[in-house]
Amino acid sequence: MLFMPALVGPDSSPNMLSCRNQPVLSDPKILLRPWVDSDASSLVDAYSDPDIQRWNMRAMNDIDEARSWIRSWRAQWSADSDAGWAIITDSGEVAGSVSLRTVHSPSSSAQISYWLRPAMRGSGLAVQAVETVSAWAFGTANFQRLWLTHSVHNHASCAVAHRAHYLQEGTLRRYMLHADGWHDVHLHARIAATESGHG
């Protein structure tokens, strides 16, 4: 087998997540914590919403499926592939989800995703959650680039991306298959902050 040495090494540790316990993230306005088994009923209720099903392209039909989904996050953190947090209200309810997906250590990058339950939309919680996870990813975990995609028809997700300082970099044509066919998607991204402010 031919071996060709790399001239540029990865910018970060290959263990970007598993080198630490998954943190609880908070500021005066928001609390993000790892998913726990008692969130299962809230997840089943959330995934009964047509918009969450439409844009996430999946359903969650019962408590057992929800618990399996919750357990999968723990395994993915240990595997340095994905990280998920529940967005929690002041009253302790699950408001939604924010996640780092497809973590790629060699490029110090990951995809960010989010959703809110219907009653929580318009509250600014999604923007706060994205900004909070982004600050942790850039400041503590040494990510250099975070990105997200959404259907061009998902105007609410686009608004969150812009308000969280994710610049729109372009449109990927026929990139995502939804129930009604292939959608073009917007690509947004942030890079690690510099002295000038947001990346």
What is the compact description of this entry?
With 199 residues, the chain is of the alpha+beta class. It has helices spanning 40-46, 50-56, 63-78, 125-139, 155-163, and strands at residues 25-27, 30-34, 83-88, 94-104, 109-116, 145-151, 167-178, 181-191.
Please characterize this protein's 3D structure:
- The chain has 199 residues and is α+β, with helices and mostly antiparallel strands.
- It has one domain (25-191): 3-Layer(aba) Sandwich (Aminopeptidase), CATH 3.40.630.30.
- It has helices spanning 40-46, 50-56, 63-78, 125-139, 155-163, and strands spanning 25-27, 30-34, 83-88, 94-104, 109-116, 145-151, 167-178, 181-191.
- It has an 8-stranded mixed β-sheet with strand order 1-2-3-4-5-6-8-7, with helices on both faces.
- The protein is globular, with a radius of gyration of 17 Å.
- The mean pLDDT is 92.
